[in-house]
Amino acid sequence: MRFVKSSGIKIYLSDKDKTLISSFECIENAVLKSNVIAFDIYNDNTLVGFVMLNNFAEDSFFLWDFAIDSNFQNQHYGEQALIELLNILKYDYNAKLITTTYKYGNTHAKYIYEKIGFVEVDAVNECNIHEVNMEIKL
After folding, report:
1. Domain span at residue 117?
2. 33-88 pLDDT tens trace
């Protein structure tokens, strides 16, 4: 997998997949911020995914948005990309803590995060917000 700095999301997502990440407009605005890094994810020369992170502390990142192109899902790209991303964050950015969330019902995200070592730390169940908070220490 190859990660290339990104200026915005360029992958295809189904309508259902779009509901699981920030709006494209939000992403386009967020990537302009100095504490946000985003990458296009390639398998060889094929664009397969997108990831955006918020560097909220010197050695800590929030995995804000992560998506695999709808045409490439269920082919293990998500798991491979997350493992490579954690290595990049650890060795190139000196990260020690990565946090993320997933929406209730997104069992696939939960499965992949747990498989690579994320653990649930708490849940938010408030008006219109139903998410599980996870973290991994590097």
Report:
1. 2-137
2. 999 999 999 999 999 999 999 999 999 999 999 999 999 999 999 999 999 999 99
Q: What is the largest CA-CA distance in the chain?
A: 42
pTM for the full predicted model: 0.91
Q: How many domains does the chain have?
A: 1
In sequence order, which residues have a C-beta less than 8 Å from that of residue 26 and are 6 or more positions away? none
The whole-angstrom separation of Cα 80 and Cα 127 is 34
**How far, in Å, CA of 13 to CA of 31, rounded?**
19
Tokens of 10: 């360029």
Please state, in angstroms and rounded to a whole number, the distance separating the CA atoms of residues 88 and 32. Answer: 21
Query: Domain holding 46: CATH number?
Result: 3.40.630.30
